[in-house]
Structures are given as structure tokens and as C-alpha cells.
Amino acid sequence: MKNYLSLVLIILFSVLSCSKTSNPIEGTIDPAKEIKGQFSDWDSSYKDSLFWRAYSDTVEYVLTSTKISSTGSFNLALPVPPIETLRNYTIYESEGSAFKITDSVQFSEPDAKFLSLSLAHFQRVSMLVRCGDNNYFGKDSEIGNYQIHYYYFDRPCILTGYYKFEFKEGYEPEYDRYFLTKYKNVQFNKGWNQIIIELTDIGNETRIFEVSNSSRIETEWRFNALLNQFTRLP
User: pTM higher than 0.90 for the full model?
Assistant: First the structure.
């Protein structure tokens, strides 16, 4: 009777773990993949953690989390994401009265699926964090400014092409008129990959960003990251 009861409990636990209304499901940790980070704007009074959440339909996956040390450093193990959280690249082009977006980014493996690492810190409110020497490519950015990003791919793939955002004539933007993001044979292996996007040129009302491979062991992180609508990563 005791063995029978134990079997029933195991089956019940398995069913609940697969339910969409169950607690978040953790990904499988790959101990060989780890980020060693340091916050540049750390305040010793902070008591905080980093979390990475991904979603599929109504399921929330808590993929990984870690505590931040009193000095602002952290080690974060990168998990193998559940297949349900991976997605294909979707070309995005749009044209309005003030702007035009052209997307010619090409995947050598059109069926490749991937997921980007998106970390947030939790203290009073949830805010995104960014890796690099700036948390936003704004009008004050300089040539050489960069950001580092992490991607998981389900197969080897090479990215080429560009993403272009341009303001039309007659519309006066706050700063440059053209924003070009170039992919120069960016190679992704199956598993985790580290890439860098860098501002490489400013001139003739144009800002050029280049995406390439990167392999930095220790990385610099910043709080309160903002998205830049003029550049695009996968």
C-alpha cells in the first residue's frame, strides 16, 4: 500500500508540472555556460537579484536567477531553454509618413530557432539591465560604444544583411536621419553565443552599427536599460 501511494504521488506531481497553470518551469542548466558580470553603477546599499523569464502561450518559465554580491558582481549559469520558448526570425518592414524600415537580414538556416537572454533586476520595480559601456544608444553615443548580447540557437547559423531605419525628407529628427545595423557573417553555433553590437561610424546624417561575434569572459553591466527603436537584433 505504501509503494502504491508513492507511485500515485509521483504521477500526480508529474501531471501538475506539465499544466499551464502550474508554477514556472525551470530550464535545464548547462554548467559549462556561465556569465561573470560586474555592474558599473552599483550601490552597496542595493540588495538585489537577477532573473530571466521567458514565455510560451500562458506558461511562464523562470529560466535562471542569481544573487548580486555586495560589490555588484554576479555569476549566472545559462540554461538550455525549453523548446517551446524558441522562435524563428520574422522580417519586419514598415513605412509611415515620417519613416521607412527596411529589413534584409538573412539566416543561412531559415528554420533556425533562437532565444535571446533578457535579464531584469528586482528591487522595488522590475527593470531591464544591459551589458556594455552604455545602456542606450542615444544621441550622445560615440563611435566605439557597444553592447553585448547572448543568444541560444537550436542549430548552427550565419547571419548576413542589414536593418535600416530612415526618417523621410520633410521630417526633422532629433538627431541623425539614417540608422544602419549591419550583420557581417555573424556565426551562431548550436547552444549559447555571445555577440556584440558596436557603433562604428557617424557622419552624413547616418549612424552605422555593426553586429559581430564576441567572446568576452567578464562583462560590464548597467541598470535601467532602454530599448533603441532604430537598431534591431534577432
Answer: no
